[in-house]
């Protein structure tokens, strides 16, 4: 269909400011994964792959607050989610970063599916897992989501009240972004064009065609003077040694898009989200409007923390901005989890 790609450009940035491929440099891998313990837990019939980070010098018999850290759509636990999990563990939290179902090292077929309902269920399963750990205080579990993971974190917390506090970093609702575009200017016709394209693809696959995939971000050789800033920065993070990982190959199943378009992460934020919530975003981020929108809708104890000079991707790995975000998030969780 004629204009389905228009809505995908904005939507894929949100779902993806996220995807990647290739190999991490040794330095990047060390920065993200140092100190992690590989763990697994069940999500229905699927085995989920996670990295668990523990505070240093843990006391025997003491229970600690825990934080689930959710990666962006199409990302993996070894990227920015692992970086935040490691830094928050250094502040005294037990933290869990995991690969979403259908992605990374977690199970789930078909591969590279981005299904918001399942992403929310992933969170519930992660909470289940943390409650089984003897050193986790089951009444002190929080969730942090990055980019699309932020929307999923907020959505999960609305109905999963074992989560006692929720924070986002460069958070977006992937559904809103697919509907309205990265800049919020998308049209209903754009959405209908996408749905028509998905319908045609499902029919083709039902008749035996191979699955179709879309790229999350442009490859480096596709960047030109007309490429918008956020897409350039996304490509720089995900498609270079800065942040790429072999388990994140920069592709999403095309038939994910009807499910994404129907999703609204903030649908019950004004009624069912009773937990404290923190939105962290950069002043120069093209996605800032989504944190502002969610903040305005929320009625529980809330805060919007804007980091001056930071763009969306800066909160992924740029020390100047990540350290500010982690410091704020750490204070937030200490205040709202430790009673």
Labels describing this entry:
39% helix; single chain; globular; eight-stranded mixed sheet; Rossmann fold; two-stranded antiparallel ribbon; 339 residues; alpha/beta
Brief account:
The protein is α/β, with parallel strands linked by helices and 339 residues long.
Secondary-structure map:
Layout: H1 4-16, H2 26-33, E1 37-43, E2 46-53, E3 64-70, H3 80-89, E4 94-98, H4 116-131, E5 136-146, H5 148-159, E6 163-169, H6 174-180, H7 188-206, E7 213-214, H8 229-238, E8 252-253, H9 257-261, E9 277-282, H10 288-297, E10 302-307, H11 314-317, H12 319-337
Notes on the protein architecture:
The protein has 339 residues and is α/β, with parallel strands linked by helices. It has a single domain, classed as Rossmann fold. The protein contains twelve helices and ten strands. The protein has helices at 4-16, 26-33, 80-89, 116-131, 148-159, 174-180, 188-206, 229-238, 257-261, 288-297, 314-317, 319-337, and strands spanning 37-43, 46-53, 64-70, 94-98, 136-146, 163-169, 213-214, 252-253, 277-282, 302-307. α3 links the parallel β3 and β4. The longest helix is centred in the middle third of the chain and has 19 residues, at 188-206. It starts with a helix and ends with a helix. Residues 13-33 have low confidence and may be disordered.
Range of helix content: 25-40%
Q: What is the residue-averaged pLDDT?
A: 90
Oligomer designation:
single chain
Largest sheet: 8 strands, mixed
How many helices? The count is 12
CATH superfamily: Alpha/Beta hydrolase fold, catalytic domain
Structural class by SSE content: alpha/beta
CATH architecture: 3-Layer(aba) Sandwich
How are strands sequenced across the largest beta sheet? 1-2-4-3-5-6-9-10
> Distance between termini?
54 Å
* Rg for CA atoms: 19 Å
């Amino acid at each position: 269909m004629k204009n389905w790609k228009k809505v995908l450009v904005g939507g894929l940035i949100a779902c993806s400011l996220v995807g990647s491929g290739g190999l991490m440099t040794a330095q990047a891998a060390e920065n993200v994964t140092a100190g992690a313990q590989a763990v697994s837990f069940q999500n229905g019939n699927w085995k989920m792959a996670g990295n668990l980070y523990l505070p240093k010098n843990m006391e025997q018999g003491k229970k600690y607050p825990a934080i689930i850290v959710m990666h962006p759509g199409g990302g993996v636990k070894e990227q920015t989610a692992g970086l935040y999990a490691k830094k928050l563990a250094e502040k005294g939290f037990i933290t869990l970063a995991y690969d979403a179902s259908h992605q990374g090292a977690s199970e789930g077929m078909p591969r590279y599916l981005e299904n918001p309902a399942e992403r929310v269920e992933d969170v519930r399963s992660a909470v289940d897992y943390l409650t089984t750990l003897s050193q986790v205080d089951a009444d002190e579990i929080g969730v942090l989501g990055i980019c699309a993971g932020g929307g999923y974190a907020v959505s999960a917390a609305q109905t999963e009240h074992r989560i006692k506090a929720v924070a986002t970093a460069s958070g977006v609702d992937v559904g809103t972004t697919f509907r309205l575009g990265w800049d919020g200017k998308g049209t209903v016709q754009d959405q209908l064009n996408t749905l028509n394209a998905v319908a045609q693809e499902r029919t083709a696959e039902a008749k035996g065609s191979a699955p179709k995939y879309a790229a999350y971000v442009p490859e480096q050789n596709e960047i030109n003077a007309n490429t918008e800033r956020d897409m350039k920065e996304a490509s720089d993070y995900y498609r270079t040694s800065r942040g790429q990982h072999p388990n994140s190959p920069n592709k999403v199943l095309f038939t994910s898009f009807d499910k994404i378009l129907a999703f609204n992460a903030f649908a019950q934020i004004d009624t069912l989200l009773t937990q404290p919530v923190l939105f962290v975003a950069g002043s120069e981020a093209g996605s800032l409007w989504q944190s502002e929108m969610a903040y305005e809708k929320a009625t529980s104890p809330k805060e919007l923390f804007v980091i001056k000079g930071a763009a969306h991707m800066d909160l992924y790995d740029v020390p100047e901005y990540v350290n500010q975000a982690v410091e704020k998030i750490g204070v937030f969780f200490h205040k709202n989890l430790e009673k």
